[in-house]
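Aggregate trends can hide what the representation actually does to any particular protein. This step matters because it turns folding into a mapping between discrete strings. For completeness, the protein is quoted in full, as a sequence line and a line of structure tokens:
=====
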Amino acid sequence: MAGPQLGDGFTRIANELLDAVCRYKFNGAQFRLIMKVWRQTYGYSKKENKLAITYLIEATGLSESAVKKEMKALIDANVLIVTKRQTKIDSRHIMFNKNYNEWKIPKSGDEMADQLNLFSSDQVHDCTPNDSNFKVDDCDPHQVDDCVPRNDFKVHDCDPNKEIKDLKKSFKEKEAMFETFYGVYPRKQSKKKAQEIWKRLCKKEGFDPDVAILGAKNYGKTCKQLETELKYIAHPTTFLNQERWSDYPTVDPEGLAAGKQSKFSSNLDFFAQQLGGGNNDQGRGNLIASQSISSLPEQTSGFQRESTDIRNLGTGATRR
């Protein structure tokens, strides 16, 4: 159960300023941003403070596009003032403009006042005709033609269930997708460092977590096809730092697995020709037979010793 207390801190706002904000047409997102600006400035007895976009996203729960759009609108309307622009090492400084007469936001009730002014007039004319012989002719209503609908008019059906794939994910949603990435990556090492790099990439414009996860999946399948040893698989930190997911839009994009099999077959044919004298089938049979003999070490060793003894005897007889 929530139990806020003034003793835990409070923000001093002038009543006149609160009344003024109520009279202007701020939308919901703008009002939430104004409240957060008050909290970070007046709440700390400051006129201005650092307010990064990423902080406002987290503090208000709004999406990145909504925060950027409404902050720009409030700055253009002179409700918020940028006192110091953003640099590479520092966020921009924002100040709330308490002079509400300078705000370029429409007030509530302005439209009603304009409508009332349409019916007001400085002079009221007497509608009584001066001429007693004044006649009012009957006015026939204007002829109204029947409107036949056009045959070529088309109404396009809108499918409410159509999946929208181009929605931008918020910063927190992108961060949470790290677990999916790490789960499909083929090597589990330095998870904490990899997560820090992932968070940094999420702040980078143009980074798409779905593409990175797909690249990691394809990289894992490629390593499996090539039977890559674990020690030769890149660490997840290296994969993210070098943005290697862009190298793997598909599995085995360079066709190395197919080339490896082709090379093995060509080597087998070469040895078959050497053993079979040009006949590949005979050569392959000889190659298989030689592999079978080599699998019997005891028999082969005895055969080799007998062959060596015979050669030695022949050599000795010749020398005599």
